[in-house]
Design a protein that fits this description.
about 15% strand, about 40% helix, eight-stranded parallel beta barrel, about 270 residues, binds phosphoenolpyruvate, alpha/beta, TIM Barrel, 8 strands
Length: about 270
């Protein structure tokens, strides 16, 4: 059973007031909790999980506004050290202290704009696990890599490199996000068939790396121009267990519509 997980990646958007307004409006859609939603109440654990990854300065406000809604919080990055002289950085314990349950790691914007290597990301994955944060690990190929036939090589290298320090006992808490770089913020969504093929490939690599049980349990999100009108066709694919949503997650009505589409991924 893989409960679908839909995560909003707000990137560097919103003020505290806007964050609180978003969560109040989303909370109204979720009150009373729909039967397909994981509200966090006992017995609700197999429904769609909703996660919001907010910029660091908004997390405290977001945590207050999300209380009681069932919406979980995520950081968008962390530094592997617990504390220290790392100006501008944020640690896993700090994210836990702000009520984060998840953290996005290895997003293509961090790989490309901040030169993050898979080796560096593997240290972050290990730090997240050590401090009780569930990593949402992103992998994905560029258009050039896809057109040159290198997609599978790139995905395998990012996956294996980023999981090099994974605590295998906690492997099932990992969430993977397949995000083709050419589909992020471009409006060019991967077709459901193309996305499914990449997800099946990733699950097969997980099987080789971590064994059958973990590969079956780990949820793989698709990310790249997911919108309310394409979410259902993507989420109905057998190996697509959720979505990581950028642009369309900034509006609570549109994010709620994608959450509702997550019900089509039930049950796994
Ligand atoms: C993302 O940045 O993770 C993302 C998928 O963005 P968008 O939905 O805007 O393509």
């Amino acid at each position: 059973m893989r409960a679908p997980i839909i995560a909003a990646n707000w990137k560097m958007h919103k003020t505290r007031t806007e964050a609180a307004d978003f969560l109040q409006r989303l909370g109204r859609h979720l009150e009373p909790a729909p039967t397909w939603f994981d509200s966090g109440e006992p017995g609700a654990g197999e429904g769609v999980q909703a996660v919001v990854a907010a910029p660091f300065p908004l997390l405290e406000t977001a945590a207050r506004a999300a209380a009681g809604t069932g919406v979980l919080l995520a950081g968008q990055n962390l530094h592997p050290a617990t504390q220290g002289a790392f100006t501008g950085e944020v640690s896993a314990p700090m994210l836990r202290d702000c009520d984060c349950s998840f953290v996005i790691l290895g997003h293509s914007e961090r790989r490309a704009l901040f030169q993050e290597s898979s080796e560096w990301i593997s240290e972050k994955v290990a730090a997240a696990q050590e401090h009780g944060l569930r990593p949402i690990l992103c992998v994905g190929e560029t258009l050039e890599e896809r057109e040159s036939g290198a997609t599978e090589t790139v995905l395998a290298a990012q996956l294996e490199g980023s999981l090099a320090l994974l605590n295998a006992a906690q492997a099932e808490e990992l969430v993977l996000a397949y995000e083709p770089v050419w589909a992020i913020g471009t409006g060019k969504t991967a077709t459901p068939e193309l996305a499914q093929a990449a997800h099946a490939f990733l699950r097969e690599r997980l099987r080789k790396l971590l064994g059958e049980a973990s590969a079956h349990a780990i949820r793989i999100q698709y990310g790249g121009s997911v919108k309310p009108d394409n979410a259902e066709s993507l989420l109905s694919q057998p190996d697509i267990d959720g979505a990581l949503v950028g642009g369309a997650s900034l509006d609570p009505d549109s994010f709620y519509a994608i959450l509702r589409a997550g019900a089509t991924a039930l049950p796994r």
